[in-house]
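Example 332.
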Amino acid sequence: MLVLGLESSCDETAAALVEDGRRILGDVVSSQVAAHRPYGGVVPEIASRHHVENIIPVIEQALAQAGVELADVEGLAVTRGPGLVGSLLVGVQVAKAVAFARGLPLVGVNHLEGHLCAVFLDADEVPAFPHLALLVSGGHSELIVAHDFGRYELLGATRDDAAGEAFDKVGKMLGLGYPAGPLVDRLAASGDPRAVRLPRAMRGRGLDMSFSGLKTAVMTHVRARGLPSGQPLADLCASFQAAVVAQLVEKTVAALEKRRLGELVVTGGVACNRGLRAALERQAKERGFRLFLPPPSRCTDNAAMIAAAGYHRLARGERDDLTLSAVATLPL
Ligand code: KG4
Ligand code: ZN
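Predicted structure in complex with zinc ion:
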C-alpha cells in the first residue's frame, strides 16, 4: 500500500511516500530554521504561515522524487498531534482536502508514534516486539515499551524539560544560536566532560527524568564564572552533554533490566547526539542488548515516519473522516 504522509507539527513541513510502512520512495523535509533563528525559537504564527506556503510544493516534490502521481497514492496519513495547533491544522486540512477530492482512506497519526516507527524505514534489520524505545526530542523524553504497532506503554518521562529543550536552552544561554542541540554536540566533541561538575539528577529514583535542574546548574556556573569561550566553552558543553547522557543511559538501562527487554530503539532529534549514540553503543556491547539507532535524518522530524505509522493503522482498517482535527496535547 502506497501511503502519502504529511507532517507539520512544529517547524518542519514534510511529505513522504512510503510503501507498506517500510520502503521510502519519496521523502522531502522543508526546514523553517532560518525563519525562526532571529527569534531564538519557533514562533507559532510564523510557523503556520510557512506551512501554508510550503506544503503543496513539498507534496509535489515528494511525488516527483518517488516518480508517482497523486492517482497512485492508496492512503493518507497526517500528524494530528501533539504539536503547535496552528501548524498541525495546516497538514490536517490539506490531508482532508486530498482525501475528499481523491476518495482516499485517511488516518490521523500521533507524532510520537511516528518517531517510534522511524526504525522500520529502509532497514535491513528491524526490532521485534516487545522492545524498549527511548524517545528524546525537543518536546519529549520518554521511555516506552512498544508491544506492537499501535500498542504502547509509558514507563517513564521527564518531569520538566525535554532533553532537546534542555540542549536548546543551555545552548541559547551560551550564545550558540538556534537550534542549539547540534551546536552543543559539535563543541562537546573537543571538550573535557569532567571539567565542570554538574548534578546527576534523579539518580536511582525510578524511571522518570528531569533536566531543568541541570539547566539551572549551568546558569549558576555561567553567573559565577562569566560566559565562557574557546576551550572552557567546549568543556562546559561536554560536561553538560555528559550529564544529560548519563541520566538517559542510567534510566534506559534500568528500564531494560526491569522489563527484561533485549532490544532498544532510540529515536527523536536528540538521538542524533553523538555522545548519546556512543554511550549507548558501549552499553549495548557490555550488556549484550540489541541497539537500533535510525540514521540522523530519520531521528529528526520527517513525514516518512508518519506514513509508516499511518500504514499500520490503515492496514488494521482504521479510518478517520472529515471531522478529523488537530490536538495540541495528544497523548500516545
Ligand atoms: O524530533 P525533533 O526533530 O523535533 C521534535 O519533535 O521536537 O527534535 C528536535 C530536537 C531539538 O531540541 C534539537 O536541538 C535536538 O532535537 N537535537 C539535538 C541534536 N540534533 C537535534 N540535540 C543534541 N544533539 C544533537 N546532535
Ligand atoms: Zn518530533
